[in-house]
Amino acid sequence: MAGTTAPRITVGVDTHLDVHVAHANDQLGCRVDTLSIPTTPTGYQDLLAWARGLGEPIAWGVEGTGSYGAALARFLAAHGQVVLEVNRPDRQARRGHGKSDPLDAEAAARAVQAGQATVTPKTGAGQVEMIRSLRVARQTAIRARTQAINAIKALLVTAPVELREQLRGLPATMLVPAAAALEPGAVTSPIAATMLALRTVAQRYQTLDAEITILTAELDRLVAAGDNPDRLHSEAAFSMLCGSSPIQASSGKTVRHRLNRGGNRQANAALYRVVLVRLRYHQPTKDYVVRRLAEGKSKQEIIRCLKRYVAREVFAVLQEMRQTNSTNAT
Fold first, then answer.
1. What is the model's pTM?
2. Among 158, 192, 224, 324, which residue's CB has the most CB atoms within a 10 Å radius?
């Protein structure tokens, strides 16, 4: 008799901070087993050994590959496993079947088997991961710097009159160094306490400003088009990635398009900021707005069109950079 072939296993993983729950289905979609592991290197090794003990793992559907499931996704990819990113089940499905970690893990496995999960997770080992870490540090520093200047201005509102008159009306570029240079002396009066508070917050502002400058320089050096730029194979693909591609929004007698609300929202926000700057300073853009307004377009619709044009220009630049890099490499 011919030997029995090992079942082909598809594993879905519901990820959390401290514990992951995995569920395995065979090639027929039948339930095989469920396992809970700690989010440690030993736990990941136990999970892979468990899956191999059930049969031949052909694919893994992992939730949250950009957060709680990032370490597991990297571990599995490093061991030659096929890993796909799975979105959490929609609310309608949860209403019908209930909510639990094993059920979510099973839904992840079924999403892979049904072909609903097709996205390969980011590797987390390239420039994009470096940029992500630096962006987190820069964004928090910017928020803290804004809080610092707001605190300085708030302190001046109730400061003793002689101190308030000395600093009021100064722009931030002059207010911060002036406040940082204050000499309160012994804190024995309200004015001395206010001066110490102003100096402390102003020096904090300067420290944060220096951090932002360093982080911005590193981000400018590392800026890239993602861990897998090959996916930007066409202008349409790049536009879809940035959430600036037109999609049908017609109904009844109304025939119209709107911009895709998906894609990378940070890239979409960057396009929006470029458009805002051009609306203020770029004469051809101003002329375009005047012409489109005369045609009956609203300003919101015009901005959507401009985002599409900016995405087209950015893609052309990326293509030129890619060709230049390929030429240099050869």
1. 0.66
2. 192
pLDDT in tens, 20-74: 999 999 999 999 999 999 999 999 999 999 999 999 999 999 998 888 999 999 9
Please give the single-letter amino acid code of residue 316. Answer: A
The CA–CA distances, whole Å, from 321 to 116, 220, 265, 318, 324 equal 33, 15, 23, 5, 5
Whether 130 contacts 222, CB under 8 Å: yes
Structure tokens given for 94:
């949860």
Half-sphere exposure of 196 (CA within 13 A, CB side): 10
pLDDT tens figures, 240-289: 888 888 888 788 877 777 777 777 888 889 999 999 999 999 999 999 99
Instruction: Supply 222's token pair.
Output: 């590392």
SS3 218: helix
Kind and range of the H or E run holding 132: helix 127-157
Half-sphere exposure of 25 toward its Cβ, with a 13 Å CA cutoff?
A: 22
Say how far apart CA 28 and CA 25 lie, in whole Å.
8
Helix (H, G, I), strand (E, B) or coil at 25: strand
Burial degree of 62 (CB within 10 A; 0-12, 13-18, 19+): buried
For residues 146 and 176, give the distance between their C-alpha atoms in angstroms, rounded to a whole number. 12
Q: How many CB atoms lie within 10 A of CB 225?
A: 20
Strands 246-248 and 257-259: antiparallel
Q: Can you tell me whether residue 11 is helix, strand or coil?
A: strand
Which residues are paired to 119 by β-bridges? 85
SS3 33: strand
